[in-house]
Design a protein that fits this description.
16 helices, 409 residues, alpha/beta, 3-stranded parallel sheet, 6-stranded parallel sheet
Length: 409
């Protein structure tokens, strides 16, 4: 998530709308509208959970800040959402487990409060049933393997509570896997890390390789018996971020049946943005320190401060504006590399800085329109919007049944 942060004069700025000057200016045709709103649109990574945890935010509220709530999900045609369960990688052991449990509880509580709008989903069939009933399917993904506290029993507990993917690392290494944001410590996956992957396969929990080091990725490819997911990653060929996937990685993911879900964060979309940020790195480093002092491990505080400062740096000409159509460029590149069966959407909304024109979830129909404009067939667009993710979940469930029936340990 983090690329730019800065000292905020007062935390009161966090109450202001983010990207409030962004307007819906991209025309949506009737064809695009009908296609989008009849499709099962799935977003595999949103950090709105942190708002539920820190602010006790109610999803029923049409908010003037952030990007996700029930009214805006309805307006944007989002049919299924994976709420991210995050804690900083420096929080380990029992504290990390407790944070994860609290986050799970905050998501499940929203489903209890709003049964007419939300349905807890743990299978591909649940998502289809929610769609048929006019409800938004709610799923959960654990963002960081440090939250299992090196204990497969904890992993199984998360699965029982509804978690359906786990990102093996966040921005720092775990005790058993290397992260793309840290110095290598294990040369990829340790033997225990491979046990974690196989246990996830046995349970039917998707293995998420967003955030992992390249070597960890290749170890996962050699270990996993089920297709894997990149829940919120973009293409390194277009933007050279360690968090993004190389073309070879995208090909291997697809050959294994997996799906790359494109991340909307400006620093993972635009090489020009990354290059400009590198030039002002001392300012960014100083700003990061001030934000850490102000926000601690409150992710939402960090995200909103970063977005505000990114806006200021852009107005000052230190950072270039990033247009939302770069999302479609990354989709297009991934499709050319892997095929339309292996690409999806993992926005990272409420956890990253959104590009101009993608202020919140209400703008999702623009992606459908842009894909139509680029010559994509309705069938392929439906796959990218959500059917690929449904297929991936169903395949993971099938592998789990096979492993369990075989008595795999």
């Amino acid at each position: 998530m983090r690329l730019v942060a800065a000292l905020i004069p007062s935390l009161l700025v966090l109450a202001l709308p983010l990207m409030s000057d962004q307007k819906k200016s991209y025309p949506i045709s009737k064809q695009a509208h009908d296609l989008h709103f009849s499709s099962i649109v799935i977003d595999t990574h949103d950090d709105t959970t942190q708002r539920l945890y820190w602010e006790h935010f109610d999803l029923e509220t049409h908010s003037d800040v952030g990007q996700i709530d029930i009214p805006r999900m309805r307006e944007g045609g989002l049919g299924a959402i994976f709420f991210s369960l995050w804690s900083p990688g420096t929080m380990t052991g029992g504290a990390a487990v407790q944070r994860a449990i609290d986050l799970i509880d905050s998501v499940r509580e929203q489903v209890v409060r709003h049964p007419n709008d939300l349905m807890l989903a743990t299978t591909a069939e649940d998502i289809r049933r929610a769609h048929a009933e006019g409800k938004i399917a709610v799923l959960m993904g654990l963002e960081g393997g440090h939250m299992i506290a090196d204990d497969l029993g904890v992993l199984r507990t998360y699965y029982a509570l509804g978690v359906r993917y786990m990102t093996l690392t966040h921005t720092v290494n775990t005790d058993w896997a290397d992260s793309s944001g840290d110095k290598p410590a294990h040369n990829g996956l340790t033997p225990f890390g491979k046990q974690v992957v196989l246990e996830m396969n046995r349970l039917g929990m998707l293995v998420d390789i967003s955030h992992v080091s390249d070597k960890t990725f290749w170890d996962v490819m050699a270990t996993s018996k089920a297709p894997v997911i990149a829940s919120h990653s973009s293409c390194r060929t277009l933007c050279d971020a360690p968090r993004n996937m190389t073309d070879d990685m995208i090909r291997a993911l697809a050959a294994h049946g997996g799906v790359i879900q494109i991340n909307y964060h400006v620093g993972f979309l635009s090489q020009a943005y990354r290059d400009a940020a590198r030039k002002i790195q001392p300012e960014i480093d100083a700003a990061n320190k001030k934000v850490d002092e102000a926000c601690g491990d409150d992710l939402q505080c960090q995200v909103w401060a970063e977005a505000r400062v990114s806006d200021e740096f852009t107005k000052e000409g230190k950072l270039p504006p990033v247009n939302w159509e770069l999302i479609v460029d990354h989709i297009d590149h991934a499709v050319k590399i892997a095929g339309a069966d292996h690409v999806g959407l993992g926005s990272d909304m409420d956890g990253s800085i959104m590009p101009v024109g993608m202020a919140d979830v209400t703008h999702l129909p623009q992606i459908t329109q842009a894909l139509l404009d680029r010559g994509y067939s309705p069938e392929d667009i439906r796959k990218i919007l959500g059917l690929n993710t449904l297929r991936l979940l169903a395949q993971a469930e099938q592998v789990a049944r096979q492993m369990q029936s075989a008595g795999h340990e």
